[in-house]
Write the structure tokens for this entry.
Amino acid sequence: MRAPSFLYSIYERGLRRHLDPANLPDHVAVMLDGNRRWAREVGQPAAYGHRRGALKIAELLDWCDEVEIKIVTLWLLSTDNLNREESELRELVSIITDTVEELARQRKWRLAMVGNLSMLPSECAARLAHAQKETAHIEGVRVNIAVGYGGRQEITDAVREFLREEASAGRTISEVAESVSLDDITSHLYTKGQPDPDLVIRTSGEQRMSGFMLWQSVHTELYFCEVYWPDFRRTDFLRALRDYAQRERRMGR
């Protein structure tokens, strides 16, 4: 049984007071997991859970605004998800596209698509790209929308793009192999030009990365939350920030 909402409000205020702005992450990535299991537990189809989860996204971004998070990455659709049953996948992609367009209409966040949009239906890919273009000028939290995203796919695409550039410059494979560096790959990732995530939050109790931001998360702090994404509250978010602030980040040292 949940505590009354006013008790959560009091608890949240206490959490906020004890957060040191100097120890908060600049870049938070969230794995929005558990929509289907949440729907199953309330006796509804998967699409119902996806819709409820979609409604939570703007709330999360408002919470990030409140504590001045600079970059938020949201994993909405993985490359593995593309193998789901056709009817569920079609509805899920539609929900994601509608949600991203609604975020764009709010004119509060600068959206960036990070994923291989060519894996999506062309109409949906075009709508997502348009949402990015429409918010490019907005000063505010940068929101990376990871759709058609997989960590292995991202690295593969980065290497492919790098090799194409080198070939266009007239360099041979042998020359490229002798000089290729970590920076060469980093500069061709979907998130090129951005700092790596400081904190990854995964909901639903699963404690694995599932290929999320494989390259960027080498020094990232991980926080696993038991609740399914549709039930994720500001309290859960603040707890994740508190946990992060209490850790000593060694950064490989």
User: Anything to note?
Assistant: The chain has nine helices and six strands. The longest strand covers residues 71-78. The chain has a mean pLDDT of 94. Residues 51 and 95 are 7 Å apart (CA to CA).
